[in-house]
Amino acid sequence: MGDFFQKAQDSAERLVRGSVRASGTALEWIDRRAAVYRLEGHIRGLVRQRRDLLMEIGKQVYALHKAGKVRNKDVLANCESIDQLGEQVEDLQAQIEAIRRPDRGLQVEVELDEDEPLTEEADEAAPGQEQPAEAADEQAVQEAPEPPVEPEATEQKDAQDTLAAPCEQGADQQQ
């Protein structure tokens, strides 16, 4: 039996030593990962600062381009590309504005003669001038003969008037 207890004790010691070794390895791994995350965060901060400086330099160079002081062909070509992109953006924004507000988007230029009145003062146009479409339509409606009245329509109208008369008389009496 002593042998059995000895083997159990040896197994327990190996298990404890392995656990300690494994936990030490796990702790080391966690420490290494934390150090890597810290360094990656620092790298991201440096990259952000670099990007901000490049943006500032770009703004300064573009301002020099606007002042006509850029002579480098490569830089000048890039600045001109920026100008073209800006023009395209402005054109697209104008199209958007025209879609949103159609009454402002379409502008029509009309040339008027100094002698020509802006409105028609008479029903008929002066000799040698054409009538506007609206005036011609109105005149055609006024000159059109009235359609013949059919007897059935007249009888229906009389019947409606007869039915409506007592209702109107009752309404007059109530007031």
In brief:
By secondary structure, this protein is an all-alpha fold. It has helices at 2-66, 73-100, 102-105, 133-143, 151-174. The protein starts with a helix and ends with a helix.
Question: How does this model look, in words?
Answer:
The protein is mostly helical and about 180 residues long. Among the domains are: about 10-70; about 70-100. The chain has helices spanning about 1-65, 75-100, 100-105, 135-145, 150-175. The model has no long low-confidence stretch (mean pLDDT about 75).
Characteristics of this structure?
single chain; 175 residues; mainly alpha; 5 helices; elongated
Lay out the secondary structure:
Elements: H1 2-66, H2 73-100, H3 102-105, H4 133-143, H5 151-174
Overall pLDDT level: 75
Strand content: under 5%
Tally of alpha and pi helices: 5
Our Rg estimate from Cα atoms comes to 47 Å
Written as H for each helix and E for each strand, in order along the chain, the element string is HHHHH
- Estimated structural class: mainly alpha
Helical amount among residues, as a percent range? over 70%
Q: What overall form do the CA principal axes indicate? A: elongated
Poorly predicted tracts of residues: none
Largest sheet: none
Q: What is the CA–CA distance across the termini?
A: 124 Å
Report the strand count. 0
